[in-house]
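User: tokens in, sequence out, please.
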């Protein structure tokens, strides 16, 4: 459980900084000139980042309220699942903001969509697919990094 809380402590400052930058963007002069769809993308992105923050913070808050004496296997599994599930809205939020930024820079819808999709593919690939395939490979070979394999 301590490892999970430590992971959350590592992730949270970056997500909070992202939220701060997203919030500041609304007060920019250029933001007011964006088309409604770009503003909507930014606001949905903001909501996705808030959801990610909530999911990342929940294990630590749960642990604080329930207390270390009541840590169970179920609590650890739920907490790990909450951290993993935070990656989906975070990836969506980053992709939507990438769309908005690219659109502001280029005013080209197709380029903005391509940038957002590329962002999603890279983040989901690195955060979810890569670890999943690696875990599968290790389980199939009954080996891991601790057995001397690199």
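Assistant: Sequence out:
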């Amino acid at each position: 459980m301590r490892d999970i809380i430590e992971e959350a402590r590592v992730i949270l400052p970056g997500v909070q900084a992202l939220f701060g930058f997203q919030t500041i963007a609304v007060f920019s002069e250029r933001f007011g000139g964006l088309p409604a769809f770009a503003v909507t993308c930014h606001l949905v992105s903001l909501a996705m980042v808030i959801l990610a923050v909530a999911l990342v913070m929940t294990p630590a808050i749960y642990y604080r309220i329930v207390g270390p004496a009541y840590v169970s296997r179920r609590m650890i599994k739920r907490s790990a699942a909450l951290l993993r599930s935070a990656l989906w809205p975070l990836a969506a939020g980053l992709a939507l903001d990438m769309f908005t930024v690219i659109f502001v820079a280029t005013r080209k819808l197709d380029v903005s969509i391509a940038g957002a999709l590329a962002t999603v593919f890279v983040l989901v690939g690195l955060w979810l697919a890569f670890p999943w395939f690696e875990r599968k490979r290790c389980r199939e070979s009954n080996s891991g990094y601790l057995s001397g394999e690199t």
